[in-house]
Amino acid sequence: MRFLLTEEQAAFGRSLEAMLTAADTPSAVRAWAAGNAVPGNALWERLAGAGVFALAVPETYGGMGPLPVELAVACVAVGRHAVPGPVVETVAAAALLAGLAGQGEDGPAKRLLPALSSGGARATLTLPDGGPYALDADTATYLLTVRGDELRLAPGYGALHASADPARRLYRPEAGGELLASGPAVVTAAGYAADWAAFATAAQALGTGLALLDRTVAYVKQRTQFGTAVGGFQAVKHRLADTLIGLEFARPLLFGAALSMTTADVAAAKLTAGEAAYAAARTALQLHGAVGYTEELDLSLWLRKARPLRDAWGTPSHCRSRVLAGPVRDASPGGWRGALGRG
Amino acid sequence: MDLLHTFEEDAFRDEARAWLAEHVPARPLPSLETREGFAAHRAWEARLHADRWSVVSWPREYGGRGVDIFKWLVFEEEYFAAGAPGRVSQNGINLLAPTLFDHATAEQRARVLPPMASGEVIWAQAWSEPESGSDLASLRSRAVRTDGGWLLSGQKTWSSRAAFADRAFGIFRTDPKAPKPHQGLTYLMFDLRADGVTIRPIGRLDGKPAFAEIFLDEVFVPDEDVVGEPGQGWRIAMSTTGNERGLTLRSPGRFLAAAQRLVQLWRTSGDPADTALRDRVADAVVGARAYQLFTYANASRFAAGSVIGAEASLNKVFWSDYDIALHETALDLLGADGELAQGEWAEGHVFSLAGPIYAGTNEIQRDIIAERLLGLPKGRR
């Protein structure tokens, strides 16, 4: 029993943090929202160079994974820095293809996974459990859709559906396209993929909440009213204390889910991280006051992301149903042994 | 990073589960906050102790099994899952004993710990005073030097279990001229039946009489009952509160078992169409799991040699708010029967209401979180 990151895992997180801190992600997010993917693509290449997209891909297909703990560390960093693009969706697509391969249908995995793992390609997808929109289909190499028991490469995606977060570019995949696989294995693999999408989104939400808290703490230390820093007022302090409590109790659920990858544990993490990040956004806006209600402050990049992340890949209500369908205790505390192909 | 129990931990779990299945009373004991219940719970402590289950994490020489924090957590999970009685010795075990392990002499440990482990001596805490609650350092009860010891005078209040307990521990002002309020305090243990001690029980919100005021009129305490150096009482009292608040004050096992009972209640009597209530049941399950995993993370840090400091305040606010939400959900599921005073959930609900008040109010905990974890400026309380 050692429910703490190993030194290697912590160092991986620190190196991603340092890299993303140096990369001016707010500019890349703003460009991405405006339809200019160039700075975002550069960011994506750096993440790929750090091995982030290999974490969800089994070694057989050129990856290093699946490594859910490391993936959580990476997606928390992605959320902290508001990295744009279909990171979660590429992870979920990898899980989908690996899940299929695990059931003997390895053609699509052989064809698509090596490029996803290296970062040479990115994917987005829709699943029966996940809403109609494919995130950032305009910049994805592969647009995968699962309908019923069929997995296809969609032929196109139509017009942009603007999200409340302009950096989340939503499209509806067109029907039809090349059939990659069909049958019960697709349904099972889509279930795995939905769990991985929810899991990676939970991590991204936690990172988003942590960024909102950090920025707000820094702001209330320097902003003065009535001749004193507003961070000294008890009403302000207590709201930020509650924000920290919310985030710090989401963290162990996230890493607990990484160790089991059961649907119920993932749902608990997604529910808690999503709600904590959204609460952090409410607090961040309130404590920044009017300047927080502006687009020009970079805080807006995280403020607008928190609510969509809370609802993407499993609304709170959906997550609660999954929790109640699972065990209350005696859930195998660390029982995951690689349903998707590891050891 | 892993959550895997070792083979030894699993074996320990099996042993605890088997013992509890055989020995836990079939019917709940009367409330430990009554005279009758106090006696029944004292007997249960003796039963636990006879097979070394009362203080599993203590060294064997004092009646424990010398197990680490992870096995303690395993034991607690099994204890609450088995529906075993509340622990009447918990003030001594959770609050005084860690202080003794850190600061007492070998003689004191040998004298005080074994009868605490067996339930022969049950301890009450005597921290608060009428004018000193959250601002504990302002306390005024004093200890004055005399031949071979100290004379205690003053008043302590809100003392859990003092109405029926044997002895108490607290801090007293020994140097009224010290420049700051938290200096010149001394940590003392005293006999609740000594000359000069008057106990006045105070009925709690739930009507139970075990809460009390303690009036002290030149009560003699020998030097051997001073813990640590005179004048160092504040530091000694505070040095163990972090780990205790953070790890052992409220066991995750208790909330896991309660959440499981809540889900059973929902499955048998919940209205499937009431999704608002369903959501709160799910939140109770998630909260128990979050608390369990948060505690495992802290235990891992503790086992790796870290001290749990201000982080313990996160824990305290979480479990106390969680406890209330859990019980409110159960009462809503019970509907009209929720108010029946003898019900397990109704009793638990009234008890949960005290959570945000004791062990340092949640307002004080949030100040600690904001100032020490987030680095916000100190302000007027």
Automatic annotation (TrEMBL), chain A:
InterPro entries: AcylCo_DH-like_C (IPR036250), AcylCo_DH/oxidase_C (IPR009075), AcylCoA_DH/ox_N (IPR013786), AcylCoA_DH/ox_N_sf (IPR037069), AcylCoA_DH/oxidase_NM_dom_sf (IPR009100). This is Acyl-CoA dehydrogenase. Its cofactor is FAD. The keyword Flavoprotein applies. Belongs to the acyl-CoA dehydrogenase family. GO terms for molecular function: acyl-CoA dehydrogenase activity; flavin adenine dinucleotide binding. Keywords: FAD, Flavoprotein, Oxidoreductase. It comes from Streptomyces agglomeratus. Residues 6-119 form the Acyl-CoA dehydrogenase/oxidase N-terminal domain.
From TrEMBL, chain B:
Residues 231-374 form the Acyl-CoA dehydrogenase/oxidase C-terminal domain. It comes from the Bacteria. Residues 124-217 form the Acyl-CoA oxidase/dehydrogenase middle domain. Keywords: FAD, Flavoprotein, Oxidoreductase. Its cofactor is FAD. One of its GO terms (cellular component) is plasma membrane. Pfam families: Acyl-CoA_dh_1, Acyl-CoA_dh_M, Acyl-CoA_dh_N. InterPro entries: Acyl-CoA_Oxase/DH_mid-dom, Acyl-CoA_Oxase/DH_mid-dom_sf, AcylCo_DH-like_C, AcylCo_DH/oxidase_C, AcylCoA_DH/ox_N, AcylCoA_DH/ox_N_sf, AcylCoA_DH/oxidase_NM_dom_sf, Mycobact_Acyl-CoA_DH. Residues 8-120 form the Acyl-CoA dehydrogenase/oxidase N-terminal domain. One of its GO terms (molecular function) is oxidoreductase activity, acting on the CH-CH group of donors. Belongs to the acyl-CoA dehydrogenase family. This is Acyl-CoA dehydrogenase. It comes from Streptomyces agglomeratus.
